[in-house]
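User: Predict the structure for this protein chain, please.
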Amino acid sequence: MEEYCECIGLIEHQYLTEEHQKRIRDLGITFIETPYEGAPKYLGLLPSMQASYFVGVDWLDKGLFIKVMPKVSNLDYMRMWASALNFRLSSSYLSKFYGMDFSKPCIEIPVENDLLTPILIMQFIRSVDLLLEYKLKSGYVARQENLHCRMKGRIMMGRQIVTNVSQMRKLDVWCEFEEFSIDIVENRFLKRALIFSKRYLKSIWPDSYRYIGNGIYLGLKRCLAAFDGVGDNVSLSEIKTQRLGKLFRHYKEPIRLAKAILRRFGNTLDECSSDKIKVPPYWIDMSRLFEVYVYEKLQTAFTGQIDFQIEGYGGSVLDFFKKDELLIIDSKYKPGYEDESDSSAIIHDVRQLSGYSCDVKIRNSMAIKDNEVLDMVVIYPAERKCEGIDNSRPFKEQCKEVGGFIRFWKFGINIPLRR
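Assistant: Here is the predicted structure, written as structure tokens:
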């Protein structure tokens, strides 16, 4: 009999109820601010007992877990993640989007609340698709086969006597030999994870290919075609003994993701079609997901004019810089810009972007002269219907000036919704 687990459900930026706050205090749990680029504890809940911009599930105590969902109920996060995968962002950068903790017990949730698996699978498909730009790794594989009128390797006397000699098959020989093939452990491991991915996407979202975009769908087809001559009979323990070496370092990321997928499903295809699933405690940083979604929109509209992730002094990083208009651009996944109601948050952002405009390291890397003054733009998720970015006009002309400040602009962008 399974132990009953209680769930405290929240959406982004929502406060815990008085009852839940009292229970948290009774358990002696304290929430702390998540450091920059750090892994959140308890989904990044703030000391004020408010949810942050991290979504996912995590244990608070034995039999008690917290679940935070996106504030937009029908948010198409799969399409947002597909936007991130359109660009060759480094695996170290993509690893900042989400995290999992396999050291803790899994948490059972409804399948529609599982935000982790689609993201994991889409990144895996993309990584294997990029792997196909290289030649698949090959190696010597042991084979056993009943050959006709020929010999290869060594004769397996036991099977030869039982199968051929006793049956008077004088022209057949049971042989064991090594064959140079792509059907090696590493490729079988990736093939099995690809099969999991295909079955999961089809069973959980029958129309998911429409959501995830042609890029991921066609990538999956390319991957399965490339691994057509590879089997899928492999276990996690087998892959642990393999060493890739420097020549095949491009296998590292696909195998890491394949391990996470197979551990997530317990290496069995049965769970792919369940109404409820067990997932490890995980978190997804929605602010970073919005950041790369904005990057995809800017890069598509202004190809070659957008620089991404420009490093400044003290570990600071500017999201975007538009070179032709000398624009400091930052994405802010937060409410308050639509009607400019949260003045304290806006003032904080003005100070942050002003710091970027004065940062010598950023200015030098962008070849900005000392007498050039930079305008600043904040891109935020708009609640009202927006026109989108018009690539035929300067971007600053499409922005609205924020009241009370000069050279500080805002631009709302609609996040995708599931139909």
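The first strand starts at residue 6 and ends at 11.
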